[in-house]
Design brief:
The chain has 303 residues and is of the alpha/beta class. The mean pLDDT is 97. Strand 8, helix 9 and strand 9 form a beta-alpha-beta unit. The protein is built from eleven helices and nine strands. It has one domain: TIM Barrel, CATH 3.20.20.70.
């Protein structure tokens, strides 16, 4: 692990931690697209109950929200954190202490939200925390915009991966995520590597996630997210038992008002259509809350 940490930290000198490959020297204070310094910036850390049921359990997911982001979507729901970088710079030792504090509170995992640009800090903090008794699963909660070379450094260290798959169309990705036209292809490769490392979603006797891949896909207005292509790709490229959360939570945030096609919430029919595609292509492990939402919309439609 020490060798991997040294390898990761060396990347700060010519930062290529994400697919944007800015090449800035963060060790000298230079900032790239994500605007992140060399030290991790933390917005907050606490037990979180807004995640999937299997990672929340009774005592919550031990969530650490990192500031800044390498994707910068125009509809970002956490834009003060991701775009403006609000938060506090900390040392890696402080990050390790946060992990241990969340474990002491009874959380079921260490949930690293938007971790891509601070991966070296996370690795170092994890080693420090492991030496002090950390034993919880490490949960990598990412936009999906990840380089294969970086993910391979995490092989055997991350227990649970939860990437987004935001779009299946390069033009949409470029339009809504700051020119990231390579997002669909990069993220598909990243998800396949994540699955290679951790396999399908696995639970303990209490129904708490301990390992595996979970994919989030946010349904967007006017089929912007390419949901049918997404579920078809999952069904063909991964086991049909892959955990997939098709989400109805899209809301108009940040700069989404400037884009007429995404300047409204989704309709019940759009969500039912998305879930129908998942059924059509044979996905068998859909998020229980998504299924409950689908059933509620169907029931309302029948009344």
């Amino acid at each position: 692990m020490a060798q991997r940490i040294n390898q990761a930290y060396a990347m700060f000198e010519n930062c290529q931690l994400c697919p944007r490959k800015c090449g800035v020297n963060r060790l000298k204070g230079e900032k790239g697209f994500c605007r992140a310094p060399v030290k991790p910036v933390i917005f907050s850390y606490h037990p979180h109950f807004g995640e999937e049921m299997s990672v929340v359990g009774e005592k919550g997911s031990g969530t650490i929200f990192f500031s800044n982001c390498n994707l910068r979507c125009v509809f970002c729901q956490n834009w003060p954190i991701a775009h403006e970088g609000k938060g506090k710079e900390v040392q890696d030792e402080d990050l390790a202490d946060m992990m241990l504090h969340l474990q002491k509170m009874g959380c079921h995992n260490i949930n690293l939200v938007t971790p891509t640009h601070v991966m070296p800090n996370i690795l170092n903090a994890t080693r420090i925390a492991l030496n002090k008794g950390l034993h919880l699963p490490l949960f990598y909660n990412t936009s999906g915009y990840e380089r294969l070379e970086i993910l391979k450094i995490l092989d055997g260290i991350v227990d649970i991966y939860k990437p987004d798959m935001k779009y299946m169309d390069a033009d949409k990705a470029a339009k809504y995520s700051a020119g990231a036209s390579d997002y669909p292809e990069v993220t598909k490769k990243a998800i396949l590597e994540m699955h290679r490392q951790v396999g399908v979603h696995k639970l303990d006797e209490q129904g708490i996630a301990i390992r595996g891949l979970m994919i989030r896909h946010l349904v967007m207005p006017n089929r912007v997210a390419g949901t049918e292509k997404f579920v078809k790709w999952v069904a063909e490229a991964l086991p049909k038992s892959t955990y997939v959360n098709i989400m109805a939570q899209y809301r108009v945030e940040y700069k989404a008002f400037d884009y007429p096609e995404i300047s409204r919430g989704i309709t019940a029919q759009e969500f039912l259509e998305a879930m129908g595609w998942a059924e059509k292509y044979g996905l068998t492990n859909l998020d229980p809350q998504s299924v409950a939402t689908r059933n509620l919309y169907r029931h309302r439609g029948s009344n």
